[in-house]
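FIELD: query
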Amino acid sequence: MATSNKLSDKAVKAALKAAQQTGVSRKLSDGNGLVLDVRPTGSGWWRWRYWIDGREGMLSMGTYPEVSIADARGRRDDARKQIAAGKDPSEQRKVEKKVSAKKAENARLVLAGLPGIGTFEFVARDWYAKRQGDWAATYSTKIIRRLEAKVFPYIGARPIAEIQPPELLDVLRRCERDGIVETAHRVRDTCSEVFMYAIAEGSVATNPARDLARALSKHTTKHISSVTDPKRFGELLRAIHGYQGTPVVKSALTLAALVFLRPGAELRHARWEEFDLDAATWEVPSERMKRGKDGKANGPDHIVPLSSQAVEVLRELYPLTKDSPLVFQGIRQKDKPISENTLNAALDSLGFTSAEHRAHGFRASARTMLAERLNFPPEVIEAQLAHSVPDALGRAYNRTQFLKQRQSMMQDWGDYLDKLRAGNVIQLKTA
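FIELD: result
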């Protein structure tokens, strides 16, 4: 049996003094693998050599005199117990350091008013930071604002591994009690994504959001109101024709009916440089279309064939806003376009309220009447609406396809609206 506990304080101090005088380091053995590395600086470094599973290891035990001989022996004995239990002391120390560092970082975050490590908010923000690059800016903003308003105040500070379905369900039902059933379902979907991310990261074992959809009230999709009856649509067109507001707003409403683009980034943000009135085309930049981030960055521009009626509207508006890059410049802020609320407010003033028709509703109006009244193929209509819809073979319609057909359709649509505005209810067009 190897001799142990061979060192004494007197012997160690003498060795330290000699090392200082000679400038030469030396090693003092205490037995059972424990060694004090004596340095010329006047201090010593405790090390313990051990074997586990046939492998040699070395473990630091601290420095002398901060760690006394008795303390070093105690640490050695504790490490020997770990080996007896089948644990590598060096690996255990690494784990302890990680735990200690995590606690320190967590304390720092909490002190700074930030979400602590392992909390739902911490994991959710980590998930968001990794995913937001995949989303369009507007969608990304909606996701984080929804979490900040509907989730973080209630379970943000809770350890994510401790959250159970009933606790998350209570958060979702707060949304229901506020009368926003759709938001409750969207929040559940987002939380489910966060928990799936946490599972992949090893933070949790299960997804408590997975089966909660059945516990929520059923959400009924509310479609944007739109006029689809030709006679009533003719009344809408006459009301727009007689609009007494600004020419910019009147032109925007008229063009919305003729080209049926989305009234947000696509229509209201139109710039004169995008138009070729002689060629009767409008190329809406890809980044303004309703697409994913990759589609916005790498997708084709959306080509909009213009009817003679649409060209006439734009030529009449041009002298009024030609000094601005924006076709529909704002009334008070010339460097910004009119707002979507401006168009809806104009419709309200014409007697077409939110219950009957909205600016976005021109798309549904056109889709319905082009199919039911003018018998245009759905793939041509969807291409004009900038929808990516798969065909029978699963291929998505290319928005640049059907250009010739869309040119014909858009002119027929412009002519059809002229007749509706004149009070002529057009019969179904035969195929």
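FIELD: remark
DSSP finds 17 helices and seven strands in the chain.
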